Structure formats: C-alpha cells, structure tokens
C-alpha cells in the first residue's frame, strides 16, 4: 500500500529531492495493507514482490532463527554469565532472551556469518555461521554466545551497523546513572532496571546486599560502541571503544572516510554526537563532538543549523586505565544545587542530562575522563544541545552525502519551554531551550546534509538538521477498524531504525511504537515523491528492530528484519501459545544483487 504525504510533512525534503538525481535504478515494493483481522495481527509478513528497473522479483520474509532455537550445540538467545554458564530467572529457569535486536551479515573469506544482539541485562551477542543456497536462502548451521567477560559483560546491546572495513559495530544503550549508583545506600535506592545485570557475576538480585551490588556492578563499564571482528575460522575479537564516549548508544555509523562516526543517543534529554578518529579504520583514538541545535524554523519537525562543540581528544587506553583504577562520579565532579532559574554558582556549569538538573564542576585534571565516562553531562555543561527525545536510527546516502536520523517522538525537552513545554523544570531546567517545537508523539525523520569542515578535519560534517517526514497524530472513532491507533495508519508511528537502499533513492524506516500503531511496521520511503509503502508488518506487541540493507551478499541482496518481543510490549492478553512470544531473526528477500 502506497500513500503520498502532504507537503506540510515534507519540511526539508528539497535536499532529498535533489539527491534522487544520483539514483542508479528504479525500485518499487508491492505494498501490504495494514493488519486488520486477528489473524493478520499475529503474522510477520513482508511485501510479496519488488520491481527493479521494470523487472518484478518475488520476495518474502524468511526466518533465520527464533530465540530458543537449538542451533548446532547451543541455544540461540540463551543469556550466559562471565563463566559461560546460563543466567537464571527468578523462578530458577534459564533466561532465553526474546529481545533480539540488530542482526548483521558478515562475509569473511568463503564463510558467511551473522551476529545478533539480545537487548537484555546482561546482554548477549550470538555469532552464527550461515549457509547460502543458489537461490539466496540462508540457514544457520551453528551458533555461540560471544564472550564479553574481559569487559565486565555486555549491557543492553541495541542497534548497530556494518563498518566500511566489514566488521560488526554494536552498541550499549541506557547506561546506568553513576551518580545515582554511587549515592545509593540500600538496594531500594537502586533502579530496578539495573539489578538484573549482577546475574552476570553470579549474584542474585533478590538477595544481594548494596555492598555486594556495588562490588559486582560498575556503571562506567557500560554505554559504549562495541566492535566484533570475525575471522574465517569463526574466531573473533571484541572491543569496546571507550574513546568514542559513553551515552545511550542506539548505534554508531561510520562514514566512507572510515574516520567520521555519528553516534545516536536514545532516551530523554539526549545529544547527537560525532567522533573523528585519528586514523582511518581505527576507532581507539580521536576527538569527540556534540551537536548544538541552532533553530531556524519551528514548523513541523523543525529545522536548524548545526554547530559542533569540541569535547576533546582521548584514546581507549586512557579510559581503560581510569576504569581499572575504579574511578567514580565523585572523582570526576564537584556538585552544587541548581537555582530555580537554572543558574549555577560561579565555577559550576548547569546540566539537564541524565534525568536531573544539576550544577557540576569538573575536578582538576579530570576533563578527558569526564568527557568519555559522563559524555552527555559533559556535553550539556559545555553548551551542546541535550534536549532531543528518543533519538534512534542513522542511515547514510553516500552518493548525495546525506545523513538521516530518526526521532521516535518530538516532546519533552524538544518542546518550547516558553510555550508551556511539559513540565518545564524537569526537561528544560539547566538547558538553553535550544529546541522549540510543537510536540508530536508520532515522531519524525530528519535529513542532515554533510560537507567539509576544515577545522574539524572531515568531509562528512553535518551542518544542518531538517525535518524530512513526520508521523501524524490521529484519533480514530470508536467502532472504526483502526480504533485505538493514535497515529495515522498511512504514516509513521515512532520511527526507530533506518537503512538506505543506496542507488535507489529509498529510505527504509522501521517503527517502535506502542499505541501509535498496534502492529509495528517497516516502510519504504521514496525520496522522489515522498511516498510511503508498507513492506513489513509484525505481530501484536512487537518492535521492528534494526532493518539493515545488504546490496550484495554472495550474489543476492537482503534487508535484515528482526521482530523483538512479540506480545511483550502490548496485547499480552492475545498470547495463546508461549512459543509465539519468541523473537524472530530474519530477512526480507532475497533480492537480486543490487550493487551500483
């Protein structure tokens, strides 16, 4: 099903429309209708065909594996501790995660591998070897949990990307607030979200003391881009890139220069970050920047010029030493109360990050480490914009040098405090009120043209951020077939992860929505005319996670597509068989090879 959006929703599209001149071919999906019946709402279903340069090809959604599947000698999605032993739930059962997220395809020599994130606490990544038949169908032949014990475990791995040097670049989302953990005096003071992580070191969250918790849980170990390099024999190396900073990493996306990296930061009152590495293909040292939104229009999803606040240079070794030394929040900062007007005492700087307004002063000699372990706080203190809400996926059209960033909601700190942003103190106090937009709970996708910046030393620096396409809030009348959905069914609802079909002018947009759409979908957005085509629909209560386009893997193209926690985010009462709640890891395709 294809719909053309009103021009009012296409703010900033001019850049994208010009970009279509670089297209190498024409591609159109056969759309699918929005799920209406109970049976349709239980399906994971994709477009049946795609037309490429006038030739139609049959495609479908193919499931590689579901969480809990036995593949070779291991259980896909089983969480394990630092010793490789199964993690247990409160009832004593082994914990098999239904929270599958980013899933990559890696060609290494004559072998094909898949790495899948499981967005849990402790988190997991599974490395699977795949076989590919002549028609392009993929089947897993073995799987194993990737070992993160040398880093103290893996925390909430969310989205990811594929580097130009063909490695898997992962993430750690929603890192714990180190100040809150340090100040806690009992387990009642610890956020329930953090507690399951101590299972990684063999502790029981239900019985652990605060002393045991703090000994087994260092919040500064989590919140970084991760990189996995796989060899043809199936062995691998793992890195956490401390030099790139610590935020709620949705994903890091490397530009074609192999040095410039954009990092999206999920949550409330978050920033947009850019890392410029010292050397191409190496992410262990470089300079970190945070975006400053300088608003030029408050219409729709808004427009802004971007400037970049320099957060300084660092390297992984320096941060790793600080972690080994057991650095704490109070080692980095002095703290003072913030005034009612958001101002601070002399020598202190305001911050609206990490869910609180506070006045902070970096202790002498700790600037470099503070910039990497408390990146969002440090950026806020330096005057960068930390007002974004639910910043999600990143995609790139390299031919036109256009970056795309999804914002799942426009609200909270993105609202104009002067016009009654809600509530002002919680989200705006300690900020500059840089972003002044009207709330839109259905979210938007932005386009960011990239160009050269001699001072930064990169040809891939974003200078603007323009609303491209937004969802439309819509109240369906009682009795309507779509009653209960709060975003227009022919438009976006909480855009999450993105991928770009290079050469075909098509941006793929996945949703992570609750009431916006009862069934989350993936859309194909055609830049040439602003049309949206629904190409994938997921079962009740699911999230579409991390669609990612691979134009040519062994002579075939794929869009990886994962269905996270079916029946788990809403509509739990619809679950008839517990097996239906298992995550799906699969792909839309196979396409013919789609290289330029």
Helix content: under 10%
Give a short account of the largest sheet: 10 strands, antiparallel
Helix-and-strand structural type: mainly beta
What is the number of strand segments? 38
Treating each run of at least 4 consecutive H or I residues as one helix, how many helices? 8
Low-confidence stretches: 2-21
Morphology: globular
Distance between the termini: 27 Å
Question: Your description of this structure?
Answer:
This protein has 596 residues and is mainly β. Helix content is 9%, strand content 39%. It has 8 helices and 38 strands. Strands 17, 18, 20, 21, 22, 27, 28, 29, 30 and 31 form a 10-stranded antiparallel β-sheet that branches. A hairpin with a 4-residue loop joins strand 32 and strand 33. The chain is globular. The relative contact order is 0.15.
Reconstruct the topology from this structure.
Layout: E1 2-4, H1 13-19, E2 27-29, E3 45-46, E4 49-52, E5 55-58, E6 60-66, E7 70-71, E8 74-75, E9 100-108, E10 111-118, E11 124-132, E12 138-145, E13 161-162, E14 168-170, H2 178-183, H3 210-216, E15 226-230, E16 236-240, E17 249-254, E18 260-265, E19 268-270, E20 272-279, E21 282-297, E22 303-315, H4 316-324, H5 329-332, E23 333-336, E24 349-351, E25 358-362, H6 367-373, H7 375-381, E26 388-389, E27 391-397, E28 402-407, H8 424-428, E29 444-453, E30 458-462, E31 464-470, E32 495-501, E33 506-511, E34 521-526, E35 531-537, E36 543-553, E37 556-564, E38 584-592
Antiparallel strand pairs: 1-35, 2-4, 3-35, 4-5, 6-38, 7-8, 9-10, 10-11, 11-12, 13-14, 14-15, 15-16, 17-18, 18-20, 19-26, 20-21, 21-22, 22-31, 23-25, 24-25, 27-28, 28-29, 29-30, 29-31, 32-33, 33-34, 34-35, 36-37, 37-38
């Amino acid at each position: 099903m294809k719909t053309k959006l009103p021009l009012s929703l296409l703010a900033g599209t001019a850049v994208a429309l010009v970009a279509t001149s670089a297209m190498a071919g024409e591609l159109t999906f056969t759309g699918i209708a929005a799920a209406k019946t109970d049976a349709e709402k239980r399906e994971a279903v994709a477009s049946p065909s795609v037309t490429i340069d006038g030739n139609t090809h049959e495609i479908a959604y193919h499931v590689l594996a579901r969480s809990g599947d036995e593949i070779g000698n291991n259980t896909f999605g089983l969480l394990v501790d630092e010793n490789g032993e199964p993690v247990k739930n409160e009832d004593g059962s082994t914990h098999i995660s239904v929270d599958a997220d980013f899933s990559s395809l890696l060609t290494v020599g004559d072998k094909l591998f898949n790495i899948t994130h499981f967005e849990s606490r402790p988190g997991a990544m599974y490395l699977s070897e795949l076989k590919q038949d002549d028609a392009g169908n993929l089947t897993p032949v073995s799987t194993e949990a990737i070992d993160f014990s040398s880093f103290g475990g893996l925390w909430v791995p969310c989205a990811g990307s594929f580097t130009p040097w063909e490695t898997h670049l992962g993430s750690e989302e929603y890192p714990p607030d180190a100040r809150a953990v340090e100040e806690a005096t009992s387990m009642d003071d610890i956020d329930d979200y953090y507690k399951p992580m101590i299972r990684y070191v063999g502790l029981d969250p239900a019985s652990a003391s605060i002393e045991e918790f703090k000994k087994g849980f260092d919040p500064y170990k989590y919140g970084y881009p991760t990189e996995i390099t796989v060899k043809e024999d199936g062995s691998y190396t793992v890195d956490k890139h401390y030099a790139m900073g610590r935020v709620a990493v949705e994903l890091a996306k490397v530009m074609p220069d192999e040095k410039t990296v954009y990092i999206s930061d999920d949550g409330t009152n978050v920033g947009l970050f850019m890392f410029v590495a010292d050397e191409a293909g190496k992410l262990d040292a470089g300079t970190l920047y945070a975006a400053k939104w300088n608003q030029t229009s408050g219409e729709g999803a808004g427009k802004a010029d971007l400037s970049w606040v320099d957060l300084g240079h660092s390297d992984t070794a320096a941060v790793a030493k600080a972690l080994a030394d057991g650095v704490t929040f109070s080692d980095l900062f002095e703290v003072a109360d913030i005034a009612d007007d958001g101002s601070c005492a002399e020598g202190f700087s305001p911050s609206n990050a990490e869910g609180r307004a506070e006045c902070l002063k970096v202790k002498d000699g700790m600037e470099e480490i503070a910039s990497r372990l408390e990146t969002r706080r440090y950026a806020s203190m330096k005057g960068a914009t930390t007002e974004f809400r639910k910043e999600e996926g990143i995609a790139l059209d390299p031919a036109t040098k256009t970056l795309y960033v999804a914002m799942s909601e426009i609200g909270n700190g993105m609202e104009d405090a002067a016009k009654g942003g809600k509530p002002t103190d919680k989200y705006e106090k300690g900020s500059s009120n840089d972003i002044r937009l009207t709330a839109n709970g259905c979210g938007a996708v932005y386009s960011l043209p990239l160009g050269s910046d001699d001072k930064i030393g990169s040809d891939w620096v974003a200078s603007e951020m323009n609303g491209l396409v937004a969802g439309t809030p819509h109240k369906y009348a009682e009795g309507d077939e779509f009653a209960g959905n709060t975003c227009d069914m022919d438009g976006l609802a909480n855009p999450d992860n993105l991928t770009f079909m290079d050469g075909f002018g098509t941006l793929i947009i996945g949703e992570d929505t609750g009431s916006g759409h009862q069934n989350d979908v993936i859309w194909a957005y055609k830049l040439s005319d602003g049309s949206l085509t629904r190409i994938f629909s997921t079962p009740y209560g699911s999230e579409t996670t991390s669609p990612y386009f691979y134009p040519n893997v062994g002579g075939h193209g794929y869009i990886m597509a994962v269905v996270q926690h079916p029946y788990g985010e809403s509509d739990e009462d619809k679950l008839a068989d517990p097996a239906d709640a298992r995550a799906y890891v699969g792909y839309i395709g196979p396409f013919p090879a789609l290289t330029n």
